[in-house]
Amino acid sequence: MKIIIVGCGKVGRTIAEQLNGEKHDITVIDSKESVIIRLTDKLDVMGIHGDGSSREILLEAGVSSADLLIAVTDADELNLYICLLASCCGGGRNKINTIARVRKPIYHKDLQETLNMKEALGLSLVINPEQIAALEMSRLIRFPTAIEVDSFARETVEIYTFKVQREFALSGKKISELALLKGSIRICAVERDDNVIIPGGDFVISPNDKVSIICAPSNATKMFKKLGSGNVKAKDVMIIGGSRTAYYLADLLIKSGIDVKIIEKSESRCTELADLLPDAMIIRGDAMNKDLLKAEGLEDMDSIVTLMDIDEENIMLSLYARQRCNAKCITKIDRLVFDDIVDTLPLDSVIRPRELTAESIVRYVRAVKNSEGSNVETLYKLNDGQAEALEFKVSPESKVISKPLSQLEFKNDLQVACITRKGKVIIPKGDDTIEPNDTVIIVTTHKGLQDLDDILK
Amino acid sequence: MNTNLVRYVLGWVFLVIGIMMLPPILIAFFCGEIDAFYFGVVAFGCLSIGLISKKYKPKKTQMYAREGFVACALTWILMSVVGCLPFYLSGQIPDFTNALFESVSGFTTTGATILGTDRQIEELSYSMRFWRSFTNWAGGMGILVFLIAVITPLSGQSNMYLMKAESPGPVVSKLIPKLRGTASLLYIIYTALTVVECVMLLLGGMPLFEAVTVSLSTAGTGGLSVRNEGIMAYDGQYYIQAVITAFMFIFAVNFSVYYLILTKKIKQALKIEELHWYVGLFLIAVLVIGVDLTINKTYDSALDCWHHTAFQVGTFISSTGFATADFDLWPEFSKTVLMLVAFVGACAGSTGGGFKVSRVIILFKSILKEFKTMLHPNSVKTVKMDGKIIKDETIRSTSVYLTIFIFIYIGSVLLLAFDKMDFTTNFTAVLATLNNMGPGLNAVGPTKNFYDYSIFSKYVLMFDMLAGRLELLPLLFLFNPSCWKSK
Predict the structure, then answer these.
(1) Which residue of A42, A49, A50 is in closest CB contact with B158?
(2) What's the rounded mean pLDDT across residues A7-13?
(3) A7: domain range?
(4) How far apart are the first and last CA of chain A?
(5) Is the pLDDT of residue A90 over 70?
């Protein structure tokens, strides 16, 4: 695919690096020449020095024949403008896809909630790094045992991957015996000894398997409790640093009934937060003060998230917290590049917003690439790419519609994991049917399925 | 320095040279010449070394500027040495220095020859003569560019350094995002233009062997021909000489122009500033020399006068080195203009040599800027080319390039002075080799050759040719001890 990236900051560079590894034709635009030179010397990409918001530069970068434009400059407005410009002057044969990074919460909210606004701006995807980071953190807090969480069908369905411990309820049992699975959840893939199996009813789960379960997010908490997956979700969370990410995270946590305490230095920011999050406890003070932390009950927290601007301070605080209590610690690291050293520290979970952002964009690109000439809506690689979870939109001409699933002959190593119909999640049983306009999620170890009809033998 | 990586790249170069020797082997077989054996031996040696070296892939394949420069310089030295072996082993050029000179001159697209005094070019076998022209062609676009285009030898990452080291011009940029795509595209344009020229020459009634070799030599702007008189042998065949004039001109144009034309951005292609200057320079030189020749009544007919003027200016501006007339007999003013045109040389990103038109533009514009700053010390002014600001760094490196160019020039003239030649000969010999042009004036004029120079002088000239082709720096890097330091 031909991809143009405007803005070569931290995120732009990471995206270019990852997409370059996947053999796309990449052109990067930045107004700083030194950045361009550094990048083109390192990666096999074309660099253009200039203002990415000018038509001339975009045309020079080949916007008229490009498949995708990613705008990740510092300014939200600029990103939106660039995407609008690109969608107006780009896309000869096929329409150009555009991705804009938008960080300001109000913009982001309005873009999501205003009807047709994204279409009017020619946007295919809006990326908000802080929100992505917050989502990931909230998942970690809500489901501490989950290794990976992927969402489908506009986030109405999620796949949770976790490692089975000996004490879990499902370890050593046949899948068909697990009564709790009836109706609301399904085990769609199991990784054992680096091999991925799409399990049938008589598959026995044993400790150390990596199990992927599909279910609606609203059922996830119940499922994890029933599975007996050790620690239950957190009740008290302390967020240190009142950044945008903190706002998004607190908002998500409060909505799922968790008490949140935010410590922030700046008075004006505290007032803002108090206004935005009436249900959160906002503490004004310097988190680098041990007494303050103790007074605010650091030692009794279930979870501690460090979201201050300076990475080193986040690391120090997390190390301190780990020493003082048993809480789950999440550390945000934005800028530090010494990954291998950070990984040796006893930090619990580390979140790197830049990488998460790049990852979600790369995922989107993969999905677009996969959907070329096929009906795949989203594609996730599970278990290091050994299995794929594909989301299909069902067309009225499909061969699979209106027949009970038990009468259809599916390929081996393939499972219809979930059907969503008008926003409702159905975990299908033998007598369920697939209807036009449903969204179907298929989990399989076959590669390169192009159409829903390909699932049949 | 990552010597293992350099070794690996050189291994691939061996392979490519081995493969390059296949056409001459075929020609030798076809013509029933014993030279197939000599080519075969060298090709076999190259292929074996290459295949063995290829097996041991270095652990670290990350290429940095240092490895890029060193690999590039060594590649060219290696190519020249291996390329001279067929001449030497077959005994057709019995002296090693002469054989090496011929090979260096071929690969660097200089076109200076030592043949014509004790041995005539026609005494060489067909396969040898083809090989000379073929080295011109291969050297024109560059062997590392070919490696990048066809054989992705390394992981594909940051081979830009190799490309930068080998490609001429102050700024090397890609045509399309993928380096490999860019390199293949260059070779496709290059080959296509060569084929077109060959067909046009055939239409003019040129024999096949000559049409092919002349096309190869023109494409690389090399100028080694298969006949002793060179292009003068086609005296009176205006069509053939005009076709060669046109293609010398075409191959000295920046190849990105052709890419833009291919992608139907003709307007944009015609807007490139370097092209304007290049065409302007060509026209002015033709006009000035044509008038000078007319005044001096050098030629009887106006057709002859303008025809030969255009050809000679074409050959000098593109640094090809063919000749249809003995310009050594021209008036002094015309000769001087020709030499000055050769200094400027071709466009960056072409197969031609010389100082490059774009560098002249950069220097010229920065001089203008300097004048303005003297008059208005507080004025802020940017130097622009093609509507884009030229970085101070580019201006600086261009100035440094000029300085090094002058130093090497002076040094070479000084070293040649030990020989028995006169000043004009020495001065133009260095000019002809450092700009990869070919013939000079007086004793190295278009009807003469470099045979009479001493062995020492020949090595000096070979250095000049390589330095000129690689644009000075990569070769000088080899003499910098710090670049050989290993960690």
Answers:
(1) A42
(2) 88
(3) 2-127
(4) 31
(5) no
